[in-house]
Amino acid sequence: MSDIPHRGARRTAKLASLPLGVAGRMVGGWGRRLLGADAAGVQAELAERTAEQLFEVLGQLKGGAMKVGQALSVFEAAVPDELAEPYREALTRLQSAAPPMPASSVHAILAEQLGSGWRRRFRDFDDQPAAAASIGQVHRAVWHDGREVAVKVQYRGAAEALLADLNQLRRFSRLLQPLVPGMAVRPLLAELTERMTEELDYHAEAGHQRAFAAAFRDDPRIFVPGVLASAPKVLVGEWVTGTPLAEVIASGGKEVRDRFAALLAEFHYSSADRVERLHVDPHPGNYLLLGDGRLGVLDFGAVGRVPGGIPWTLGRIVRLAVDGRPDELLALLRKENFVQPGITIEASDVLRYLAPLVEPVQRETFHFTRRWLRRQAGRMTDLRRPEFDTGRSLNLPARHLMLVRATGGTTAILCQLDAEVAMRPIFEYWLDGFAD
Q1: What is the spatial distance between Cα 183 and Cα 185, in angstroms, rounded to a whole number?
Q2: More confident residue, 5 or 167
Q3: Cβ count within 10 A of residue 335
């Protein structure tokens, strides 16, 4: 593969192949069952083949389409096991793997970005990628001074592919608006577009990574690799060796999972204060457990600035929900545009909607489980439940999208880890407005 399919028609056709492929396999499966094949066996085979197609199509498209797959890989914890299990492995592979670029394309990009003498910067360069993601792939190499480094190279056509996917998403805004009448969909999509477009600039990513590395340089619990060189489409950083989070989720003991979860929660909620930035791409492919027990954090392409840290308002909203103060809660939500003018909603309904989401800070320690996350997802998406109508009446101001996206992804990972975490001390220390 020399580049990413980026023309709208080609990408739309590939995306359309997913539901068409599923439909074709379902018809074939029905035919086999009519001929006497075992129903469970047919269903398992269909699920496996659909999962493989999901990996192939989203992996080949990369760009925004693959980012959707990576997001799904985080939130599979909210899907019942009997539905999620066949897809879990394929989605997990999207966190750190995809069909790679050929070596000739990689060399050409390195020459464009680092100069024709790029090889002199390295003692050794492995042409086989160590990992591949939505807009770039990573190669292991040895820097000219002997340090092991990770070299991230952006795919050709990544910008065009990402923008094509985002344009498709924006076209859906009018269709989405009636489904969520309380939410301003267009500015939300505009904010998402801005954040994702920033990921195309590896110079900017290098700046974010340097800021995180400086803030956590002497931290005994969290490690961020340093940056050695950068260009708009190439980034060279320290190589980090550790146990991938996916392995900890799959086979880690309780003590290891609890430690990993506590470190991840601390990193997420402390970053806004320590760096005035947030890592907003929390999926398992971006975290490692190092040999010395520290959390290693990778990939700073998706980072948002939060001058002054997490807004006081958000900490206060959580505290009012924890304390069960519905009238004050609704008044604050209206003031901050979480409830738009003209929307009629009962304070008690808002508290009923939010209270289960703040359970993790109501106890000394909280056990994050897939079952708990599924229960929350079910409350919000079941049309028969009153919480569904309440959720449709609430608005997410675009300025908070980044934080909500990162917090939701982090929470989903804690549930995948099946971990017990003392969240309240983290909130009391790092969230202005919560302890006041």
Answers
A1: 6
A2: 167
A3: 10
The whole-number pLDDT of residue 244 equals 92
Query: Tokens 């910008």 correspond to what residue?
Result: 159
Percentage of residues in the chain with pLDDT exceeding 90? 51
More confident site: 103 or 387: 103
Query: Given a cut of 60, is residue 382 above it in pLDDT?
Result: yes
Q: With helix as H, strand as E and coil as C, how does 352-415 read?
A: HHHHHHHHHHCCCCEECCHHHHHHHHHHHHCCCCHHHHHHHHCCCCHHHHHHHHHHHHHHHHHH
Letter for the amino acid at 255? E
Angstrom distance (rounded) from CA 177 to CA 244: 39
Q: What is the sign, positive or negative, of the torsion defined by CA atoms of 61, 65, 71, 76?
A: negative
User: Is the backbone of residue 122 left (phi > 0), alpha (psi -120 to 50) or beta?
Assistant: beta
* Distances, alpha carbon 9 to alpha carbons 156, 161, 164, 177, in Å: 18, 11, 10, 25
Alpha carbons within 13 A on the beta-carbon side of 46: 22
Distance, CA of 166 to CA of 352 (rounded, Å): 34
Q: Where is average pLDDT lowest: 83-97, 101-115, 294-308, 322-336?
A: 83-97
Per-residue model confidence as pLDDT tens digits over 16-64: 443 434 333 333 333 333 334 444 443 444 444 544 444 444 444 444 4
Q: What is the pTM of this model?
A: 0.75
| Whether the Cβ atoms of residue 226 and residue 238 lie closer than 8 Å to each other | yes
Q: Are strands 122-125 and 136-143 parallel, antiparallel or unpaired?
A: antiparallel
DSSP string, 123-170: EEE-SS-SEE-SSEEEEEEEETTS-EEEEEEEPTTHHHHHHHHHHHHH
Task: Please give the span between the terminal C-alpha atoms of the chain, in angstroms, as a whole number.
Answer: 56
| Segment 285-337, tens digit of pLDDT | 899 999 999 999 999 988 989 999 999 999 999 999 999 999 999 999 999 99
Tokens of 53: 């197609």
Local structure of residue 302 (DSSP, 8 states): S
Q: Is 312 exposed, middle or buried (0-12, 13-18, 19+ CB in 10 A)?
A: middle
Specify whether the CB–CB gap between 125 and 141 falls below 8 A.
Answer: yes
Phi, psi of 55, deg, nearest 5: -65, -45
Report the alpha-carbon distance of residue 223 to residue 140 in Å, rounded.
19
Work out the number of other CB atoms within 10 angstroms of the CB of residue 395.
Answer: 21
For the record, the structure tokens of 413 come out as 């990972």
CA distances 35 to 13, 32, 40, 82, Å, are 33, 5, 14, 25
pLDDT of residue 74: 45
